[in-house]
Structures are given as C-alpha cells and as structure tokens.
Amino acid sequence: MSRVALVRCETYQYDAVKNAVEKGVNLIGGINKFADKNEKILLKPNILVGDNPDKHTTTHPSVFKAVAELFLQTKAILSYGDSPGFGYPELTAKKAGIYKVGNELNIKFADFINSSNVLFKNGIQIKNFNIVKGVLDADGVISIPKLKTHQLERITGAVKNQMGCIPGFLKNEFHLKFPDAYDFARFLLDINNYIKPRLYIVDGIIAMEGNGPRGGDAKKLSVLLFSNDPIAIDAAICKIINLNPEFVPTIKASIGTGSGVYKEDEIELVGDDINSFIDRKFKVIRQPKEKYNYNTAKGNIFSLIKNHFVRKPYIVDLNCVKCGICIKVCPSNPKALSWGNKGKDNPPEYNYSICFRCYCCQELCPEKAIKLKTPFLRKIFKKLYI
Hints:
Blueprint: E1 2-8, H1 14-27, E2 40-45, H2 61-72, E3 77-80, H3 89-95, H4 98-104, E4 108-109, E5 115-119, E6 128-132, H5 133-136, E7 140-144, E8 146-150, E9 154-156, H6 168-177, H7 181-195, E10 199-209, E11 217-227, H8 230-240, H9 249-254, E12 267-271, H10 294-297, H11 301-307, E13 312-315, H12 325-329, E14 337-338, E15 349-350, H13 360-364, E16 370-373, H14 376-380
Parallel strand pairs: 1-12, 2-3, 2-7, 3-4, 7-10, 8-10
Antiparallel strand pairs: 1-11, 5-6, 8-9, 10-11, 13-16, 14-15
Helix pairs in contact: 1-2
C-alpha cells in the first residue's frame, strides 16, 4: 500500500504554500524521514524552459522555496537544478524565478551540464545512460514536478520529471532512439528507478491543461500532492483530471516492474478529500497513446496506415515568430522540420514522412504556435488504436 497526501492550497502566496507543504510532508512521515544532517540532498524542480512563473510552465518559486526551507531544517546540505530542453541550465533557472530563491537561501546550483555514463543492470528498456553530475554527487533527490499535460506521455508528473537529470544535449538522442511512447516510457522508468527520488511533491496549485507541457492553458486545481511512490502520485493526478491511468504510458509500462502501484485499492489517500479536487472538464487527451515506431515500420504499407492515424504536429502560421527553435530541437536525422524553399521569412515546414511524432517541437515552442492535428481516419475509427 502506497500513501499519497493531498493538501489544498488556493494561492502561491508564500505563507499559504509553506503551511501546505509542511502539512503534506507531515502526512507522509515527516521531514526527518527523507533527509539527515549533513546528507547531500538535491532538489529537482521542473524547469522545462526559462519561462516566467506566471506562464505556469515550471515549478513555481514559492513551492520550491517552501520545500527548500523545510529541508534546511534537517541540516542537510542542499543543492538544486534541472537540465532544460534547450538553453543554459542556470540561465533558465533565473528566468523561471528559481535561481533567485536559491541565492536567497544560500543553496548552490548543482552541475547539470557535465555527466557520467552509468550502468543500471535492472534497466527495462536500457541499461546504460548518462546522468548529470549534480544528481550523481547527491545522497538523495527530492523531485518537485509541475502538473501539466504532455502530448507523448499524456501527463508530465512524478516519473517524467527525472528526464531533466539527462543532460540537455543528450535528450534528443533518446527521443530518436525510442520514438514509440511506450519504449520511451520504459526509458523514463529506468531513469526514475536508477535515481530513486526519496520524495515527490507535485505543484498542482495552478496546472497546465490542453497543449502542454509549454503551450497549454493555466488551470487552477488548488492542490499539492506528496508521496514516495511516483506511480501512485501520477495515478492520483489521473483521478483528479479524470483520466484513465492506463492511458498514461509511464503508468502502463510500470505494471509488473515493481516501480510503484496505480490501482485505487493499492493507494492510501490522506489529507484533503481527492473528490474535492476532481476536474472532469480538464483538457487532456483521454485516449491511450498510439503505438508508433518509425524505425520498424518505415517504408511499408503499415507505415502509411499509421501516418493516417497518429496525431501530427502542425504550425499555426499566425502565431509563429520564425525563431527556429522547433528545427533546433527536432531529433530526427535528417530533421523533419526545415525552412523549406521559402526561407526564414516563412514558418518552418514539416516532412511528415520522416517525422516520428516525438512532439519535441510542440513541447518547446515558445509561442504556442505548434498544435496537434487528429487525422481524418482516426476521427472515423476512434476506437482503433495502433
């Protein structure tokens, strides 16, 4: 039985957040359960990109500060950091308001640039990968994700947050290596199971729905979630946003792996009543992720059929500022996005024949200019998933 605590918090006003964080941690055993004096503890917020906190793309500074102050009481040696989708880690933390908090509390920014290759014999999808030095140098990790939608994995919550422990320049390599959402989910589980964060605190006070994890809309859920089981906490998120947990690849892929539990009768919910947080109109794709493996299906009739069922990213021309970030982050080789024959005065163009639907372009577009299109045949045969 895994325990998940839910605590209502209506605002990012610091005193309210601090009280909520203290209450939540106490509900799952108290702060001394997760850190000891002189231990090196790394705080891992979600800093996808350097967006202003008001955009609700990243863990809010008030939540980060409340967690940090609580762990300082243990006399642990704290550090923090994240490796963003693109950009310099410390610069993105400054833009997101996290760096300022770290300075105020005299907490150092950890090394999220350099990394070492690690061997994980228990890996399900992969047994060797690189982890940043800041994580490897720590005795324990506290994960502080942001509750958001994600087009590949449906939600970005507890499990997905540890993708930021892979150095930024290597992230695209793994999207290319594991284009199928379920293979990628097993890779995320491997990262999570290797790092084994001691505690997850999810910022769901104002979440992101729709076209997340960067281009969606803010949605107030007024909740902070706490657990040491990442699957259980992600399953609780699913209940709150009215999503079948088995539609989330990281939850589906975790079944039988010992990574955590997701069924309601295996989770003890404490704190505020979860039913008081449920938002049945929360905008999220309530369908399982399509199976899609460009590498194995390339060049045959099945690949053609898949292209008519799997959601495609597309650019809303009026929103595009021609920054080229989508081209830069596209992991396909050759790239599925280019300036085309019309040049940089026009939005980039897709070559869907080599696009394997990782949605990195949509995830990191700064102007909400990239959305997903449901193919006509999928609309007709909406109960058929491949």
